[in-house]
Design goal:
With 79 residues, the chain is mainly alpha-helical. It has 2 helices and no strands. The protein has a domain of 51 residues.
């Protein structure tokens, strides 16, 4: 029974991490697109700002997920 619950928790973690990754990728890319339209004239630099935003989003999502996934959960009992 414990093994089944552990597998379910891992699946729930992966679903949450995928959600965080997709959201940060999309939001950072949109922010890069907006900044590119406001700050740059050349299409190349606009796409570069979108790529930079996407990279920042993926990097921050990976960093947060790796810290949470590798964290050791400690349970403190109230005695």
């Amino acid at each position: 029974m414990a093994e089944s619950k552990e597998i379910y928790d891992v699946n729930a973690k992966w679903d949450a991490y995928l959600d965080v990754g997709v959201r940060r990728f999309v939001y950072s890319s949109a922010t890069g697109l907006l900044a590119g339209f406001l700050l740059f004239r050349s299409p190349v630099t606009r796409w570069a700002s979108v790529a930079f935003g996407a990279g920042v989003g993926i990097g921050s999502a990976y960093s947060e997920c790796s810290h949470k996934f590798d964290a050791v959960e400690t349970h403190v009992s109230k005695d």
